[in-house]
Amino acid sequence: MKAFVTGGTGFIGKHVVKKLLKDGHEVYALARSERSAAILVGMGAQVVPGDITDTESMRGGMDGCDLVIHLAAWYKLGAMDASQAESINVGGTRKVLRLAHELGIPKIVYVSTVAVFGDTKGQLVDESYFQGGPFLTNYDRTKWLAHYKVAVPLIEKGAPIVIVMPGGVYGPGDKSILAEMMRLFYRGMPAMPGPELTLTYAHVGDVADGILLVAKKGKNGESYLLTGPAIPLGEMVDFWGNFTGKVPPNLRLPIAMLRPF
To answer: How many C-beta atoms surround the C-beta of residue 158 within 10 A?
Structure first.
């Protein structure tokens, strides 16, 4: 099988590419820079120089593939400028998925996120849950737009898209807000924001396995959650304390102090 992958040097993407190659598949991976290209070559993938915001740069590498996995996304902690988020997460996703549909790729996997659900106010939900905000970050908001205003309309037009929705993903190489909070905790975090903030978590290797299982067995038009049990952040921090022997911060700030976008 020939697979075209975007975001192949990202946190989840590296695991997906390695697993595809290990299973004997040909991987054509998009690379925006020489550094990314070198990483992909080192893994054994075929490099496709280009960018998800440039349709024609992807065409040659994607044409003739059996599978497209779109992982590439903009994610930057604390960023206030939404222009890159819009261009990459929304515009780039539109170009990847439209091109894959145009080229007749038989299976397209779009990697969304449970963040598109926003705040469920403690309610445990499934893939059918929907609300339009508010969102805590520009990442969450633009991934919502990509999911519901790009991927879903293309599905309704007949595109063979399957959507996967990871929750919090952890493991070696993690650069998410969860990983940053772990680092702050280890250094001696004076206060913890939002102890009642409840999230779901899964190991990056399990998420990559889930993506490939969905690529193989997922039903076109369906969405699949890829995550574990829901755990309040305060409980997670207490676990870190028990594991490391460090004392969790006594000062715990309410989640309302986190500014939504």
So the answer is: 10
Q: Tens digit of pLDDT for each residue in 162-203?
A: 999 999 999 988 888 778 888 888 888 888 777 777 888 999
Residue 250: inside a domain, yes or no? no
Indicate whether 260 pLDDT > 50: no
The answer to whether the CB of 225 falls within 8 A of the CB of 189 is no
> How many other C-beta atoms can be found within 10 angstroms of the C-beta atom of residue 155?
21
Task: Give the predicted TM-score (pTM) of the model.
Answer: 0.91
Residue type, position 238, single letter? D
pLDDT tens across 71-97, in order? 999 987 666 667 899 999 999 999 999
Mean pLDDT of all residues in 226-242: 89
Using DSSP's 3-state secondary structure scheme, residue 28 falls into strand
Query: How far, CA to CA in Å, does 113 sit from each of 43, 123, 227?
Result: 26, 17, 10
pLDDT in the model for residue 207: 98
In angstroms, the Cα distances linking 246 to 116, 138, 237, 249 are 34, 33, 10, 9
Give the model's pLDDT for residue 80. Answer: 64
Q: Does some domain include residue 240?
A: no
Half-sphere exposure of 99 (CA within 13 A, CB side): 27
- Read off the tokens for 176: 């998410």
Q: Which domain holds residue 51?
A: 2-169+202-228
CATH code of the domain in which 67 resides: 3.40.50.720
- The answer as to whether 187 is a domain residue is no
Domain total in the chain: 1
Among the listed residues 91, 102, 225, the one whose alpha carbon sits nearest the alpha carbon of residue 169: 225
Residue 171's identity, in one-letter code, is: G
DSSP 248: P
The reply to whether 60 falls in a domain is yes
